[in-house]
Amino acid sequence: MEQAYYHDRNNTEALLFDIIRQHSTEQALTWIAQQQEKLGEPVSVQRFNLTFTAIPRFTGRQVISTDTPFIEVAPDMPFFIQGYTLDKLVRVWWLLQLPAADRELYVKVIEGLFDAADMNEQAALYSALPLLAWPDAWVFRTTEGVRSNIGPVQEAVMLHNVYPSRHLEEPAWNQLVMKAFFTDKPIHLIAGLDERANRQLAAILTDYAHERWAAGRKVHPLLWRLVGPFITEDNFADIQRVWHSEVNVERDAAALACASSTYGPAQALLAQSATLEAEVASHRLTWETVAARIA
Fold first, then answer.
1. pLDDT tens-digit profile of 20-72?
2. Which helix (H) or strand (E) holds 75?
3. What is the C-alpha separation between 188 and 194, in angstroms, rounded?
4. pLDDT in tens, 202-244
5. Distance between CA 180 and CA 251 in Å, rounded?
6. Which of 219, 206, 217 is nearest to 249 (CA)?
7. pTM assigned to the model
8. Tell me: the pLDDT tens digits for 13-25?
9. What is the distance between the alpha carbons of residues 181 and 238, in angstroms, rounded to a whole number?
10. Which stretches of the chain are DSSP H helices?
């Protein structure tokens, strides 16, 4: 039987509200409590929608600060809140107030919010994907978010969001990663990046690198993170080219790609530099250090 939630909704709600309480005025908390009371039983969909829209006017849009960048809502399921504004956090929490027992009604109401949402509302909705009930219902909506041309919406779908890596089929996942490269997103912030690396994506990225080189343009060093596990004789020349780059961060990327490969010539290439090999082995050189240098 399909589960409504893959996390403890009550516990998640409590964790979020604790953060909301720490950052809200008494006036804002009173207003939130009033909206909960007015929501009624059965829930008034109109009240639910109006409150979702009105939240910023009563909570403010100040950026929240927390000790950790995420809350753990289930084993191996972080929900990132770093950089959230208070209204965005309250909107995510408010979505948990909608009863989910009636799947058809629940999905209809949330889809209605997506359809009517402005940019900030869309960003909150897409950020909340991992917490929404009936997870399989949001796959198409996620692919729509990937196709969006609105930066904050793209970032809500792509960055620090565990939903796409857990639910998108491989072609849709590959499209997300490619869109992230096309739009210069911080690739290392894509949740599940290494776990969802695949041979088809490596081939697409290699073709993309060839196009960039042919046009005299640079290739993002983190592209090789996703090619490394799939190095073969067909793309090894590309790794060699990056290895011999005059740009240090590109050579570092080639070293890390070789380190993640089981292809013998790639391992032999890494062994040519005792310095890089040692830096990789000691974790002084990682994809995170590469990302930090190109940020």
1. 999 999 999 999 999 999 998 888 999 999 999 999 999 999 999 998 999 99
2. none
3. 10
4. 999 999 999 999 999 999 999 999 999 999 999 999 999 999 9
5. 22
6. 219
7. 0.93
8. 999 999 999 999 9
9. 18
10. 9-23, 26-39, 45-59, 86-95, 103-116, 119-127, 139-147, 151-158, 162-167, 170-182, 199-214, 223-227, 236-243, 248-259, 264-271, 274-281, 287-294
Q: In the chain, pLDDT over 90 holds for what percent of residues? A: 94
Q: How far, in Å, CA of 81 to CA of 66, rounded?
A: 8
* Tokens 């990056």 found at: 242
Instruction: Report the distance separating Cα 66 and Cα 48, nearest Å.
Output: 28
Q: What are phi and psi of 284, to 5 degrees?
A: -75, -20
Strands 70-74, 77-80: pairing kind:
antiparallel
The full set of domain ranges for the chain reads: 1-196, 199-294
- Please, which residues bridge with residue 6 across strands? none
Helix (H) or strand (E) holding 98: none
- Closest CA relative to residue 243, chosen from 232, 233, 251, 235: 251
Residue 1 confidence (pLDDT) above 70: no
152: preceding bond cis by omega (within 30 degrees):
no
DSSP string, 101-152: SSHHHHHHHHHHHHHH--HHHHHHHHHTGGGSSSGGGGHHHHHHHHH---HH
Residue 137 in tokens:
């219902």
According to the model, what pLDDT value does residue 3 have? 83
What is the per-residue pLDDT for 21?
97
Question: Left, alpha or beta for 83 (phi > 0: left; psi -120 to 50: alpha)?
Answer: left
Please name the amino acid found at residue 293.
Answer: R
pLDDT at 40: 82
Please report, as a single letter, which amino acid is at residue 108. Answer: K
Backbone angles phi, psi at 53, to 5 degrees: -70, -35
